[in-house]
Amino acid sequence: MSGSNRRRALVWLAKIIVSAALLALLFSRVDVATLWAHARNASPGWLAASIGVYLVMVVLSAWRWGVLLEAAGVALPAGRLIASFLVATFFNNFLPSNIGGDVVRIADTARPAESKTIAALIVLADRGVGLLGLLTVAALGASFAEQLPGTGIVGPSILWLLLAAGLAALALLLWRPGALILLLRPIQRLHQEWVGEQLEKLEGLLVRLRRSPGAIGLCFSGAIVVQLVLVSFYFAIAISLGVPIAFWQLALIVPMTFLAQMLPVSMNGFGVREATFAYYFTRMGLRIEQALLVSFVGAAMMMVFSLSGAAAYLARGRRPVDTEA
Q1: How many CA atoms lie within 13 A of 203 on its CB side?
Q2: pLDDT per residue as tens digits for the range 145-186
């Protein structure tokens, strides 16, 4: 085994250990039999509703991605983008990494964009705008939930400051794209010609996006709506399980769990997600069992839904289109 493969294997092993340790700690504090009994009593109607809500979230996410693509001069049918997003959702849920879905989206749009670099940058921009939407909903949730117990160590003021910093960074990138290119110039030493070409593509994309402020505003608004729909998904899960929690409390918890899962310390967020749910639920006077139920059932419903992405992938009869950078 080469040195790089050994390091990769050690990293995955460490992530598995972290996930297993966190889950073992949480399960040591609950009655598993009671947990399973509550899970079996979940309302089928509300679980079905949660699947429908998740579909709405995927459609809106694909639309937001399409708005960015169109602003960059890449127009694709909505159905094609939704199908690509479904496949990406499947890969995100069933591969030991959250970037597998991004690879699918990049491959699916590289040829229409006439560049893998442009396709990748648009997906990266979509991720960035999504993060701003997540921070917005988290800040709103923290502000509303401040009147309720258990807002946690990250209060609304910190979240609003992070959001303001993110929006300022976005404005700076669009208003002065040349400043970013100037900062990145030193990496041209790695490969003068190739890196130079990629930096030109980056600057060109930022200029295009700057000329479409309406598209950027739509994407940001869409990102907020997507996060609110995702909170609604978990709210439906909580109702199905009879967990007494307010929507705005979940509007704080759900974004915080996704922020925690961005830390590259676990396998697909397992353990970290459950620990974050447990932290906030117990601060709000709820039980760890209820936190684990909402987290696990939510993850299970996502995985069930993402099987539609597997069907969409098999229906293609081929792999995503590839092209040169």
Answers
A1: 16
A2: 766 655 667 788 999 999 999 999 999 999 988 888 888 888
Q: Domain tally for the chain?
A: 1
The domain in which residue 303 lies consists of 44-152+215-313
- State the helix-helix crossing angle for 192-210 and 44-71, rounded to 10 degrees: 110
Residue reference for tokens 């700690």: 25
Look at residue 84 and tell me if it is in a domain: yes
What is the model's pTM? 0.90
**Domain-embedded: residue 268:** yes
Does any domain span residue 166?
no
CB count in 10 Å sphere of residue 292: 24
